[in-house]
Amino acid sequence: MTRLLTLLLIISSVILPSYSYEGTIEDTVESSMLRTKMCADFCSVDNCRTYVTPLNRCYNARHLFPGDDAWSDLDIMDVTMNGSTLPSEEFQREFYSTSDGSCGGETGMSTDSYTLPFGECVGPFGAPRPWGIMSVMDVAEEE
């Protein structure tokens, strides 16, 4: 598991561009990732898949998980709430019109956003796994 997390961090630092976010992002979350368990049937234990994505950094899930229909082509940034430190109760998921992992660059404005809770089953998002539960994964704790 440690090797997988290390590999994900290396890949994310190479393929995920930096993004200057105008809000405050707490130092306590810089080494954190978002663990998302997506399920076909309301966060059950069957027919689920777990994904690990960055927090407070732009990413394109189609690049991270090629061939997986659970994700759209749009860039995403999952942002911890302003003034929040982890563990927080929620985060902001922002979508951008770009699909290159840039979130529109320095002038990028999100086209849509949602406030989502940590630790609760939410959805529906869309096929093939419309339900999800998200949690913060501290990379240092996983090593």
From TrEMBL:
Keywords on record: Signal
Protein name (record): Apple domain-containing protein
Signal peptide: 1-20
